[in-house]
Predict the 3D structure of the following.
Amino acid sequence: NFGDEYNGNARDNYANCDVAGCSKWSDLIGNEKVARVYGTVSCSPGYCHQGQYYTSQESFMNVLGQPIGAVNERYTCCTFLALTGAMPSYCNTFDFTRNYLVNYCRTKNFQKYDIPKSKGTRVGRLYATKKSSHHHDYVFVENPQLITIILDKHLENNTSVADENIDIDVGQEGEMFPIRWVVGDVGSLEEAREMDLSHIWRVIVQTSNGLTYRRYHSDIAEVHVPPTLGENEISTGETRASIKVELLELVIERDGS
């Protein structure tokens, strides 16, 4: 979490407030590569709790409307790594040598994340798999191609999908997707049987450069149901329900790598 850099309650237990020397981001001070993108990084006194601590740059944690700043933006890279096993391309600014940023996130883990020792299994520029020891719900795909298949009864016994039942979006930039869109719900029909999943769609995508992607998707999705108010207006808590979906959505790398 970030702490308020104006005269609030944030002390150096927050990632963006530090003591003299600013060891949390001292490697960014004087770094020309970072300065070209974010401006000069410093170790400036007079911020956070009663002005007793130091910050790096004028940022939105001090004044609304200001940039996020290099230090805070680098922490977002660590957040991506912790939650997805991946880091978006803007994080390359902070990767000074091989695995520098991954090691920074692990050894300077001021946000108290469970940081993996390395990026997830790499497939082109797609990182993280369901088999990772870190069970991610989302994954970052740098060059995604989103394929949407409209499910109807006419598809039940067909081996190919008609044009009117499919939509391909090739214009998307890198972003986060539910990991089930990327790797499927199960790895095989055998696994589906073991999990007692009754209705699985096997989707085979063949790209123009000869690559083949196989995905196994369930047409049953689990959704979160908002909490309701019971007697005396006390929330009964969030619940979950299973619904039959009308669309299958899957993501592959746009360049086929």
User: Anything to note?
Assistant: Confidence is low (pLDDT under 50) at residues 119-135, 232-236. The chain is about 15% helix and 25% strand.
